[in-house]
From TrEMBL:
Compositional bias of kind Basic and acidic residues: 1-10
Official protein name in the record: Uncharacterized protein
Region (Disordered), start-end ranges: 1-21, 357-387
Species of origin: Lentzea albidocapillata
Superkingdom assignment: Bacteria
């Protein structure tokens, strides 16, 4: 048995806004995605038999993109642990509450627990996704457009009128004149705002290169609506708060592994949420020093239960396109009550020392534990899946 069907695929069109992730992984044609499917199936086969059915169901779940992403995240972690020479047991009851963590890991003479969580600041907006799909399918041989949603309505707009207005506007434009106006007269690119009911959408037309005009299958949208604001301000902190209290007392190191889908990952944000906000103060002699406010996960007063978490392993935006390239980073607890977390050779580390966050690079690149070349997957992903 395999995760995906063994068949000839011919559809290499980019992912539609309303297309479920599971459907995209199943139908996307091309060597890049063939490699991804082959590796997913291979890693899935390394799971213990009792876990394979549940993982496969999640990987193929067309009703939940989060289910697909979390299953891929756990599959990646499991393979990384195996590749580091660990033995991994899945969902074995542990702790004073009898819960079943994702992975009980044995490495040499030591054991530790890894609890995985996938979290994202991205959300699927069904109305906007359907609208963008409509715009993207609109024939536009000479231009691509940027889309800015100034105001989103509570119900779907009349797509027929939107397509009619946008088509008419694009047909009136000359791509060569638009380029000349931009380069010679410093005029802005053509723009158009469509309004109806409680919707307001602005477009800007970008001339296609002469050699790429008139291609029927080419997408119309060249720039998608910018994200107005993150849905959640601190994904890692919310994740570790949720998982850190799940198991009660453990007599071994406990690592919360966070795969976060975020637009602007910043180490400073993670450090502030786990170790506390930095503040510089002046000592005698006009010298300054850095200390941390007691507002971090491990530094907030009266949170002894947080010492149960030995470390937080973070990987930003993991997926088949980045598995071989991303560096997992283990943020180590500064709490003296915490059991020291083990560090695998492919993990970088962060430690808090005298108010400063000190980083140590990994001893080996992540791809060595995964059994993948550094440049895997090889080839052109076309429109890469980035949800």
């Amino acid at each position: 048995m395999a995760v995906y069907t063994d068949r000839i695929r011919t559809d290499s069109s980019p992912q539609r806004g309303t297309e479920p992730d599971a459907e995209f992984y199943e139908r996307m044609a091309g060597p890049f995605w063939d490699q991804a499917r082959d590796v997913i199936t291979e890693w899935w086969s390394h799971l213990p038999e009792h876990a394979q059915r549940g993982f496969r169901k999640r990987l193929l779940d067309r009703n939940s993109n989060a289910n697909v992403s979390s299953a891929l995240w756990e599959l990646y972690l499991h393979e990384m642990l195996l590749g580091a020479g660990c033995t991994v047991e899945i969902e074995r009851p542990l702790g004073s509450r009898g819960k079943t963590p994702d992975f009980l890991v044995t490495r040499g003479d030591e054991q530790f627990v890894v609890e995985a969580i996938w979290t994202s600041e991205r959300a699927d907006d069904a109305l906007t996704a359907a609208l963008l799909d409509t715009i993207d399918r609109l024939p536009s041989p000479n231009f691509r457009v940027s889309v800015t949603i100034n105001r989103a309505g509570s119900t779907a707009p009349q797509q027929k009128r939107l397509k009619s207005g946008l088509t008419r506007w694009l047909a009136e434009l000359d791509p060569d004149h638009a380029i000349a106006d931009l380069m010679q007269r410093h005029r802005p690119l053509p723009s158009y705002t469509w309004q109806e009911a409680d919707w307001s959408i602005s477009f800007m037309a970008f001339p296609r290169d002469p050699g790429r005009r008139g291609i029927p299958s080419s997408r119309t949208i060249g720039m998608y609506p910018p994200m107005k604001e993150p849905l959640r301000s601190d994904l890692v902190l919310e994740a570790v708060r949720r998982k850190g209290k799940k198991y009660g007392e453990l007599s071994m190191p406990f690592i919360v592994a966070v795969g976060q889908a975020t637009y602007f990952p910043e180490d400073d944000d993670i450090g502030n949420s786990l170790y506390g906000s930095p503040i510089e103060y002046i000592r005698s002699g006009d010298s300054s020093a850095l200390r941390r406010l007691p507002d971090g996960y491990w530094t907030t007063p009266h949170t002894d239960s947080h010492s149960r978490v030995s470390g937080v392993l973070v990987v930003n935006n993991p997926g088949p396109w980045s598995w071989a390239k991303n560096t997992p980073v283990l943020w180590c607890s500064p709490n003296s009550r915490s059991i020291d977390a083990p560090v695998l050779p492919t993990w970088g580390t962060m430690h808090l020392a005298s108010g400063q966050v000190e980083r140590q690079p990994p001893a080996a690149p992540a791809n060595t534990a995964l059994g993948l070349p550094e440049d895997w997957p090889i080839g052109d992903p076309s429109q890469r899946h980035t949800r």
